[in-house]
Design goal:
about 375 residues; about 30% helix; four-stranded antiparallel beta sheet; 11 helices; 17 strands
C-alpha cells in the first residue's frame, strides 16, 4: 500500500466539558506591541476558540508563542506580540481544556496505541537507532508531497561540502521534490564557491585536498556575486552555471537566506534584518506540508518555532505537517523537541550520506 495521510479527528464539542465551556474572553490592546495581562499563548496544535454558544472557531494558520486576535467578522488571527496594534482584541486565558473557552486539540491525528511492555530497551532515538523504516516512510511521503504538498528544506552548509551530496540535492530540485528553501549566507556562499572553484572552504569537493590559498575561495565567490549584483544576475549572466542556488533560481523556487552576525560578505540576497527574514520564513512555513531540516541547529529551531503541526485548507480540511530533523548530533535533534516542536522526527546520520541515500531511494 502506498503512502496515505492520516485522517484528522476534530474535537467532539458535544462532550460535557466542551458543551458547558464558557465563551472566550477578549481584551483590547492598549499599547502597540504589548499583549494584555493573562493573554493566551498559542501552541503548534490546532486550537479552537468558543466565540458564541455552540460556535467554536479554529485558529489557522497557527504558530507557537503568539496570541489570538479576534476580528470584527469573528475570524481569528494568530499574531506575534510585536505586531499587535492598539484596539485589537486578544484572547485571554492560560488553560487549554475549555475552562477559558479555548481547546488545544493534541489528539487530532492520534491512532490506536500499540501495546508496549512497561520496561523496554531503546525507546528514545540515538545513534544506535535503526532508521530503515524511516527512510522507506520518507520515500512514500515525499512522492506523495511532490503531487499534493509543499516541501520546505532547511539546509546547513554541510549539504554542499561534498560533491555527491551537492549533486544529489540538485537532482532533488530538478525532480520536483523541493518547493522552497530556508538557509543562511553560508549554504549559498559555499554552494557558489563549489560552482566557481570546485571547492568548499578551500578544499576540493571530492578529494578534500586543500588548494593553494583556499581560504580566499569563499571570499572570492562572495566578491564575484556582489560584483554581478545578485545571485539571480550571476545566473542570468552565465557566471553561475551549476549548484543548488543555480537550480533554485532557474526553476523559480522561492528561498530565504537569513543573515547572521557571523556572515562574510554577505551575498546580496541575504536578509540582514532578522524580523524581515522571520516574516518571510513564516510566509513559506505557513504553506509547508513537510519540512526537511538538515544539519543546521539554529535554523531548524527557528523553523520549528514558526511551523504548526497542521495545515488548514478550505478544500482539503486539516492535515498534518511532517517535520524531519537530520543531524549527526543527538543534542541538535533533541534540542528541537526541547523547544516545544513535539511533532519533529529525527534521523541521526551524516547529512551528506542522507541526501545521497534519499535521492537513490526516490529514484526507485
Amino acid at each position: 500500500m502506498g503512502f496515505q495521510l492520516p485522517q484528522y479527528h476534530p474535537p467532539d464539542f458535544r462532550l460535557p466539558a466542551l458543551a458547558a465551556a464558557p465563551c472566550a474572553v477578549f481584551q483590547d490592546v492598549l499599547q502597540e506591541g504589548v499583549a494584555p495581562a493573562n493573554y493566551h499563548a498559542t501552541s503548534i496544535f490546532p486550537e479552537y476558540v468558543h466565540l458564541a454558544p455552540g460556535k467554536w472557531v479554529l485558529a489557522a494558520p497557527s504558530r507557537m508563542d503568539c496570541v489570538l486576535v479576534r476580528h470584527p467578522d469573528d475570524t481569528l488571527e494568530v499574531k506575534e506580540c510585536r505586531r499587535l496594534r492598539t484596539g485589537e482584541r486578544v484572547a485571554l486565558g492560560r488553560t487549554e481544556n475549555g475552562e477559558d473557552g479555548i481547546w488545544v486539540h493534541t489528539e487530532g491525528f492520534a491512532s490506536a496505541a500499540v501495546g508496549t511492555e512497561k520496561f523496554a530497551f531503546r525507546l528514545q532515538r540515538s545513534r544506535e537507532t535503526s532508521f530503515s523504516i524511516d527512510y522507506d516512510e520518507l520515500y512514500g511521503l515525499l512522492k506523495h508531497e511532490k503531487e499534493h504538498g509543499f516541501v520546505v528544506w532547511v539546509l546547513g552548509p554541510a549539504v554542499v561540502f561534498d560533491r555527491d551530496a551537492r549533486a544529489a540535492f540538485c537532482a532533488l530540485i530538478e525532480a520536483g521534490f523541493v518547493d522552497a528553501l530556508l538557509a543562511g549566507n553560508a549554504l549559498a556562499t559555499h554552494d557558489v564557491e563549489g560552482a566557481l572553484f570546485g571547492t568548499a572552504l578551500g578544499q576540493e569537493l571530492y578529494s578534500k585536498r586543500p588548494v593553494v590559498q583556499g581560504h580566499y575561495k569563499h571570499l572570492d565567490a562572495l566578491n564575484l556575486v556582489r560584483k554581478a549584483g545578485s545571485l539571480a544576475k550571476a545566473v542570468q549572466g552565465g557566471m553561475l552555471t551549476s549548484g543548488v542556488m543555480h537550480a533554485l533560481i532557474r526553476k523559480e523556487i522561492p528561498f530565504v537566506l537569513a543573515g547572521s552576525i557571523r556572515d562574510d560578505g554577505p551575498l546580496p540576497e541575504v536578509i540582514g534584518d532578522a524580523y524581515v527574514a522571520q516574516d518571510r520564513m513564516r510566509e513559506i512555513t505557513s504553506r509547508a506540508t513537510t519540512i526537511m531540516a538538515l544539519a543546521t541547529q539554529l535554523h531548524t529551531i527557528a523553523t520549528g518555532n514558526l511551523a504548526p503541526s497542521f495545515i488548514f485548507n478550505q478544500r482539503t480540511g486539516i492535515r498534518p505537517v511532517y517535520f524531519y530533523a537530520v543531524d549527526m548530533s543527538e543534542f541538535a535533534v533533541n534540542k528541537l523537541c526541547d523547544r516545544g516542536s513535539l511533532s519533529a522526527r529525527s534521523i541521526l546520520t551524516n547529512v551528506q550520506d542522507f541526501v545521497v541515500t534519499l535521492r537513490r531511494g526516490l529514484q526507485r
